[in-house]
């Protein structure tokens, strides 16, 4: 499977001043990922969802969280993952540690980077849709085989009717032939 989700960051971006990366995980060791994440977080208003495309990459930004993916990664799973990650971050990391200039240890961010390479893992609706599609395929195959069995049953009924008609003709023919001869 090709990597479709490259970077995830939680950023402290005060209304005035320089932003700080609180925690991040990168699949690629590019400094540009950190710079890009900080820049788009600074330029996106708190509470606003925004997706920015640059070359083959898309940065999804929400509430100071940034995910950088390729262009094929769906938008809805990216934002649901950001919401979940930010909720977990706020719940597990005390706000008093936000002021430190050093990166905050938050192992869940690395787990997210690895686990959600497949967007269906991040989005329940996509997962359910995939299961529905698979179920639909199975149902189509089942209906197809039932129809084929129905056709075979129709053929058997037709043959049975024809065999019954032939046996009646055979009976009548043998009865006529037996009537012409007298048995002594």
UniProtKB/TrEMBL annotation:
Domain of life: Eukaryota
Subcellular location, record wording: Cell membrane
Keyword Ubl conjugation: no
Classification via PROSITE patterns: LONGIN, V_SNARE
Domain Longin positions: 1-110
Topology versus the membrane: Lipid-anchor
Pfam families hit by this protein: Longin, Synaptobrevin
Alphabetical keyword list: Cell membrane, Coiled coil, Lipoprotein, Membrane, Methylation, Palmitate, Prenylation
GO terms for MF: SNAP receptor activity
SUPFAM superfamilies (alphabetical): SNARE fusion complex (SSF58038), SNARE-like (SSF64356)
Annotated ranges, domain V-SNARE coiled-coil homology: 124-184
GO annotation, cellular component aspect: Golgi apparatus; plasma membrane
Keyword Metal-binding: no
InterPro entries according to UniProt: Longin-like_dom_sf, Longin_dom, R-SNARE_YKT6, Synaptobrevin-like, V_SNARE_CC
Chief location category: membrane
Family: Belongs to the synaptobrevin family.
Protein name per UniProt: Synaptobrevin homolog YKT6
Species of the source: Armillaria gallica (Bulbous honey fungus)
